[in-house]
Design goal:
mainly alpha, about 80% helix, about 230 residues
């Protein structure tokens, strides 16, 4: 198999697995629709997912990476749908609108600033790539609080094993793809994503769950950035 064919196969499988990962939000939204309420859950992961996909979509357009464009067009559309669903069923609509408006301001501000650099395309790509990395790394760092909890109680029951395993697989695919196309902005966040997923998976060995019916298995509520 040629290098080009291998790149194409890897990017296709990475896109498919990432889209399936994005679709985990539909499980959460289905519960909202069934209950006619969002309960005490937060819709912020949906907003953050939309922001992440929007930045990566921008990066994919600037670098002409069709796989990055495709997966994040789908991701941004899905997360926007999740945001609208959460808005319909949340009682705190005003606060949620403020959160979404704040994220939109960040997105518009970055796009406006980078558009001023049209005469310097390399710098435009670099700044957008750095923003994408920072946003994605922040999302990957979010589960660290759950790691502290698991270590404290010495029980990994609260961690969603299927989601963590999928996150590792998806991050690994994009890491390899980033290496093949020599793109450090894709490599760095996905390398960190692999490390974090491995840390979480190691806790299942160190602190085995007493059962597999804990909160982590009842509801997948973690938005997965690209």
């Amino acid at each position: 198999m040629s290098a080009l064919a291998y790149d194409s196969l890897l990017s296709t499988t990475a896109v498919i697995s990432t889209v399936f990962q994005f679709l985990s939000g539909s499980i959460v939204c289905r519960k909202y629709i069934q209950k006619k309420s969002t309960g005490d859950s937060s819709g912020l992961p949906f907003i953050c997912g939309f922001l992440s996909c929007s930045f990566w979509l921008r990066y994919g357009v600037l670098t002409n990476e069709q796989s990055v464009v495709l997966v994040n067009v789908i991701g941004a559309t899905l997360f926007l749908g999740y945001i609208l669903t959460f808005y319909v069923f949340t009682v705190n609509k005003r606060c949620y609108v403020k959160q979404f408006a704040f994220v939109l301001l960040i997105l518009i501000g970055v796009i406006w600033y980078t558009n001023r650099l049209t005469a310097q395309p390399k710098q435009m790509i670099q700044i957008t790539g750095i923003v994408c990395c920072v946003v994605t790394v922040c999302f990957f760092a979010a589960p660290l609080t759950s790691l502290v909890h698991v270590i404290r109680v010495k029980n990994s029951e609260s961690l969603p094993l299927p989601l963590i395993s999928t996150s590792f697989f998806v991050s690994l695919q994009w890491l390899i793809y980033g290496i093949l196309i020599s793109d450090s902005f894709i490599q760095i966040p996905n390398f960190l994503g692999c490390i974090l997923s491995l840390l979480q998976l190691s806790l299942f060995v160190i602190y085995p769950p007493r059962t597999y019916t804990g909160q982590g298995y009842k509801l997948v509520e973690q938005a997965v950035p690209f």
